[in-house]
Fold these 4 entries.
Entry 1:
Amino acid sequence: MANTAKRKSSRSKAPPNEAFGMLGDIKAFWDSQAKEHGGSDLATNPDTHYRSLEIESIVRAISAMKHDTILDVGCGNGFTTKAIAKAFPVADITGVDFSHAMFGALLFSMASSSIA
């Protein structure tokens, strides 16, 4: 028989100052990925086949809705953001990311491409 007792949230039990330390570790990981891979799709996903399926799925989902404005949260180095921009050239697209180094890789790759 299923347990119907209410359960507490599975939030981290780490003290607040320790949680902020984990955020620093996460940011350091993504910063190192940006430095190692730059604008390559390998910076955020080492599986290029999976990445192409992911982009196809995102484009298909966006196509099914109004897409004058698109927000890419966690855009990383912008690899997927650029693919979205190519698929929807008249949309206003905004990318945001936690890692300044990833965002720097995005800006560098945007400057060297035809997408502005």
Note: The chain has one domain: 18-111.
Entry 2:
Amino acid sequence: MLADVEADLLGQCLGVSPPASRQAGQGRPALSKEALAIAALKDHPDWTDGKIAKAAGCNAKSLYRMKGYTTAKAALRQGGADIPRGSKSEDGTIEAWDDTTTDDFMEPSDS
């Protein structure tokens, strides 16, 4: 479960203020399904939408109607676009390449 500080930060990101019960210090309120879905997405980016929906207590189709969730999911997808790809050989040599370039490597000619 989210700590009070994390819940407050999540609320700020979503543009909502803490409920009156929380402001009055009466304990911790239940988070919305959207907030739970975003928290699950953050903690488990590899989960399917169905699994995230189950953790948030809603239907997977409902996730696509949640503006905050769709924005977070798009940002998560976009964030991985600039990660370089590559491989490491058994001797420790690292070879990396950029998938965004379309230039093919050409061997120099002898002419």
Note: The first helix runs from residue 4 to 14.
Entry 3:
Amino acid sequence: MTGKTEIYHGRTASVGNSRGIRLEAAFFKSHGLNVGRECTVRPLAGDTFIVSFAGVSGESALDEQEQDPVFAGFLQFLENDMIARPESISPADDLLAEMEALVGDSVQD
């Protein structure tokens, strides 16, 4: 992962009696997705969707019903960024001290 956002283009198409989305071959090659791989599409809002492919490495062990696709995507983004730019990782000690100074002992049991 280079840290550069990958963008692939596609087009809706008729596939037999169904509909499909045709994507550039580079998408499948880049992510090791072979023909016939099952996927799940989740609408988010408007024209935004999340497509998840079964069996992709790093897949969560959680049952599909328990997964939050937005949060899982965010965690994957963080993981990719940490791998691509490990020098940007720093301890959270200073941030935690700032947070404690802001809220102090306001949390009650």
Note: Residues 69-84 form the longest helix (16 residues).
Entry 4:
Amino acid sequence: MEGNAHLNMLNRARLTQRQSQVSEHGLRCLICAKSFGTFAGYDVHMKAHQGQFRYYCNYCGKGFMQKSHFEGHVNNHEGKKPFTCRKCTRGFAYKSSADEHERHCRLSTV
């Protein structure tokens, strides 16, 4: 089978698979059952299952789809904690971790 014909057949199969997964919960991954509201989100998720990552860690080779997750991971390797709580100044490698901590931090701003 020609390369392009094979790719077209795979794309048609993917579209059929996508359409069959649409339910009241949106799209559902057949591998891990995670649900998605858009085809774009589903496609990015499936690329991760297939090992097609956008970012790779130079320290350990782990792959990431989201830049912020990749950067937080590298911060951990390098011992960096660039995100701090404005209430207690505790440092975090991930912005999301700092934000979550700050929401629950009981110390008052100095």
Note: The chain is about 45% helix and 10% strand.
